[in-house]
Specification:
Length: about 300
Amino acid sequence: MITSMTGFGRAAGPLSDRYFVAVTTKSVNHRFLEASVRLPEFFWELEPALRAIVSETFSRGKVDLSVRVQRTHQPEYNVRINTQIANVVVPQLRSMAEELGLGSTFTGSDLMRVPDLLQVEAIETEIADDEKNALAQLVREAFAQMVAMRRVEGESLHADIAARLKTIRQLQQNLSGYRDEIRSELLAAYQQRVQDIAAQAGVQVPEERIAQEIVLMVERGDIAEELTRLTHHVEQMQQAIDGREAAGKKLDFVSQEMLREINTMGSKSRSATIRSLVVELKTEVERIREQVQNVE
C-alpha cells in the first residue's frame, strides 16, 4: 500500500529528572528525503542520531523535526567576573564620580549595570545514555503517529490512482477496437499520396512496389506496439501501488512513459475519434502524475 508524504506527529515525556521534552514533527512533499532538525544548543550532539532515525523511517519527503526541552532540575552555575572589563571601566567610573562630587562608593547594583562585567554560565553535564535512548523513543513515537497519518492519506491516493487505471484500461480497449479503422485510414491516405506524387513527377510506379511501400508505411503507423507498452506500464503501476515498498519515484517514471506512448498514438492518426480517446487518456495520466507527487 502506498503512503503519502504529508503528515504530522507529536510526543512528549521526561528524559530524566533533569529534562522534559516535547517532540513535534511534520512532513511535506519533496523529490528526495530532506530532514530539518531543530534542537536546543545543549542537545546539538544528538542531531546525527536523530537524522539517522529519520533515514531509517522514511525514504522520501521533507521532514521537519523539532525538539523543545524544559529543565525540570536547575543545573549548577559558574559565575565569573570579567576582570579585564573591571580594571578598565571601574577606575573611570570612580574618577567621573569624584569629578561630579558623587563620591567614589559603588554598590553591587551599580556594578551589575556594567555590560558583560558579570558572566553567569550553566555548567552543562553530558547527556546520559538513558536520556539519549528516551529521546530516541519519543522521536519514534512522534514518527509513528506521522506514519499512521501518511498511510491514511495513502489509502485515498491508492483508491484514486486505481480508479484512474481502470479508466485507462477501458480507454485502451476502445482504442484497440479502432485499430482496423486506423489501418484503413492510413492505407487510403498513403495510396492517394503515392498516386499524387507519381502523377506530379510524371512517372509510373509498379503496383507491386507501391504495395510494398504502403505496407511498410501502414505498419509504421499502427498503434499496436504503443498499446502493448501502455498495457505493460499500467500493470507496472498497479503492482507498484499494491506493493509494500516506497513507490513514488517509480510511479513518477512510469507515468512519464505512459504519456510518451499516448502522445505517439495521437501523432499517428488524424481520426477525430482516436484523438478524442487520446486526449482522455492523457487527462487520466496527468491526474495520476499530480497524485504521484505526494506519494512516498
